[in-house]
Amino acid sequence: MNTEIESRYAVGPNEVKGFDTEQLRNEFLVDKLMQADKVYWLYTHYERFMVGSAVPLNNALTLETLDNLKAAHFLDGRELGIINVGGKGSITADGETYSLDYKDALYLGRGNKSVSFRSDDAKNPAKFYLNSAPAHHSYPNKHVTKQDANVLHLGSLETSNERNINQMLINTVVQTCQLQMGLTELKPGSVWNTMPAHQHDRRNEVYFYFEIPQEQAVCHFMGEPTETRHLWIHNEQAVVSPPWSIHSGAGTQNYSFIWGMAGENLDYDDMDKYQPQQLR
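Structure tokens predicted for 4-deoxy-L-threo-5-hexosulose-uronate ketol-isomerase (280 residues):
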């Protein structure tokens, strides 16, 4: 079995007020992603959201069911979003194969029985970033390229946050039950993401940071707007953001990140914003 899974229970804002750096990292940092020849999962108890990765080398990796799911197949009661952040690869779902280039996405709906991941070149393997949420209905699988995305151009160089938000797995592009995913790319000279910061109490979110050079880092801000905390993030690491937490960041240079969320609704703009002068 080439699958590893961890489980984390939900933590409330009152507990987090007393956390030191190690406790914050243990609860919210996801630092075991992109392990070679392995499927890795973190099962969170925020919306039963799962974040993971699959990095196949010479042989295919299989999406195996897990004891946590109590199901014969992984997608018996779930949907799955995938974005490739590595070399070219392919995913086969119930006999149909989808080829994914760098930054391509794939949605797999509830009910797919057999799913496998492959790399075209083991020396430059695909790195499939995975998000999964419970699903009440079966929607069709769909391959979504960056060219298919709905792109929002936000921010400016003057405020250090000029960026493109590529909305890829959202309801204007593909039908899903509750899962949404997209890819934000900061322009050179810009470092701030998601400013003004916001909460959305009706859903959780996970940020996966990548395209960060080895000698650089991103400072991710979390917590209640008046009780903020921070985590230093390195390349190909993620942060679990509870519904009560803001999620924002600033890097030592520009970078990219994937956002994934699930919860009450599919309204992308359902958020409570906080201007910089309101944060503490």
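The helical segments are 13-16, 21-28.
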